[in-house]
Design a protein that fits this description.
Length: 196
């Protein structure tokens, strides 16, 4: 290190500087063959700094408006501070509030896909850590899916049976049981053109 203290002296190379103090280290290497002949001395300097940055996430898409087709959320994680990606956990819930409850088991895979296959509004809660212990927590969404047709409206006639030529009717919206709402109600009489 910068004070001249020897940190490591071995035939096995030091491959991790984890646990060493923040400092500038001089690495000197020489190789001896079986005949006792030594190589020239090779020297490099290494600056040990701490990773203070949490991992970053690329989430695609970050939100999705109403659609009637299944889709997937692609997630890629990367450590930007240098200590290396450690693990990730996620949960797909109906709450926009982040919670560690329900998170998946820790995985060392930095990329994964989350399918959206069921009707509803969802949020992706994600946590990831690096080898220095920095933690990223992130929520994305909403992700919306509605593959179910709206409920059939109710038509009420003002008169039934044979009657005078003027009959009025009322169309009552019974809603959309899965969440995206009713966009339009159309009707037609005797096979004519659709009207709103």
């Amino acid at each position: 290190n910068s004070s001249g203290t020897m940190i490591h002296n071995s035939s096995v190379p030091l491959t991790s500087f984890a646990g060493l103090a923040l400092d500038r280290y001089k690495i000197t290497l020489k190789v001896r063959n079986s005949s006792g002949v030594e190589s020239e001395i090779f020297t490099r300097f290494v600056n040990v700094v701490r990773d203070a940055l949490p991992p970053e996430a690329i989430i695609n898409p970050t939100t999705k408006e109403w659609t009637n087709s299944n889709y997937a959320i692609d997630v890629s994680l990367a450590d930007v501070g240098g200590s290396g990606f450690r693990n990730q956990q996620y949960a797909l819930t109906t709450s926009p509030t982040y919670s560690a409850i329900g998170l998946s088991s820790p995985s060392t895979s930095p990329s994964f896909t989350v399918p959206i296959n069921n009707d509803g509004i969802y949020y992706l809660h994600l946590t990831s850590s690096d080898n220095e212990g920095n933690v990223m927590k992130r929520t994305s969404g909403p992700y919306k899916l509605d593959k179910t047709a709206p409920n059939v409206p109710v038509i009420t006639l003002s008169k039934t049976g044979w009657t005078a030529p003027i009959v009025s009717f009322n169309i009552a919206d019974r809603g959309d049981g899965t969440g995206s709402g009713v966009k339009t109600i159309q009707y037609r009489i005797n096979g004519g053109s659709w009207k709103t």
